[in-house]
């Protein structure tokens, strides 16, 4: 069991590093395309019609992909006013309850998110005519990964194990 947990943790770290690299490259490409679009629109009076669409979708994929795979739990937004004042034992139970509740809500609503995203196959982006189900699939990926990460964290808190990043 301990070997499986270590393997899962090592895999998660590797996937996180890969996601960071992909996000950094995608962000660089997004900035370059945005700059090229501005230069083309204002310098050449010839806008790149599809650039806004690609920049917007790239930004969505960077934000939600990085949040799902690369950003450690401790770096997500949190309000610790009450949490910081509790004893370590009570913090662990608050952690378990909060992450369990959030993980269950995300897991329970995931089928509806997948269903709605799949429904979008009928619609296409205006410039490049990409199917919207593929354009917005990252929402379901994000929701599923966050549910899994939260439920694993809740389980670790309940069992008294070290909390995963």
Automatic annotation (TrEMBL):
Which Pfam families has this protein been placed in? DctQ (PF04290)
Write out the entry's keywords from A to Z.
Cell inner membrane, Cell membrane, Membrane, Transmembrane, Transmembrane helix, Transport
Membrane topology term: Multi-pass membrane protein
Chain ranges of the Tripartite ATP-independent periplasmic transporters DctQ component domain: 30-154
Q: Which GO terms describe its molecular function?
A: transmembrane transporter activity
Q: Does the keyword Secreted apply?
A: no
UniProt-listed InterPro entries: DctQ, TRAP_DctQ
**A biological-process GO annotation:** C4-dicarboxylate transport
Answer whether the UniProt record assigns the keyword Calcium to this protein: no
Question: What sections of the protein cross the membrane?
Answer: 21-42, 54-73, 93-114, 134-152
The UniProt entry's sequence similarity note says:
Belongs to the TRAP transporter small permease family.
* Function, as annotated: Part of the tripartite ATP-independent periplasmic (TRAP) transport system.
Q: How does it assemble?
A: The complex comprises the extracytoplasmic solute receptor protein and the two transmembrane proteins.
- Which protein is depicted? TRAP transporter small permease protein
| Species whose genome carries this gene | Acuticoccus mangrovi
- Provide the organism lineage as a comma list: Bacteria, Pseudomonadati, Pseudomonadota, Alphaproteobacteria, Hyphomicrobiales
């Amino acid at each position: 069991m301990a070997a499986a947990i270590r393997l899962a943790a090592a895999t998660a770290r590797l996937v996180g590093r890969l996601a960071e690299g992909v996000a950094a490259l995608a962000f660089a490409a997004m900035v370059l395309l945005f700059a090229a679009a501005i230069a083309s629109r204002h310098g050449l009076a010839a806008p790149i019609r599809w650039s806004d669409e690609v920049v917007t979708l790239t930004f969505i994929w960077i934000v939600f992909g990085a949040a799902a795979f690369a950003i450690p739990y401790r770096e997500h937004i949190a309000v610790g006013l009450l949490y910081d004042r509790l004893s370590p034992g009570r913090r662990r139970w608050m952690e378990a309850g909060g992450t369990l509740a959030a993980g269950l809500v995300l897991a329970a609503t995931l089928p509806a998110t997948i269903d709605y995203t799949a429904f979008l196959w009928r619609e296409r982006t205006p410039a490049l005519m990409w199917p919207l189900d593929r354009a917005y699939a990252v929402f379901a990926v994000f929701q599923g990964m966050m549910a899994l990460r939260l439920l694993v964290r809740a389980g670790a808190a309940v069992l008294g194990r070290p909390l995963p990043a």
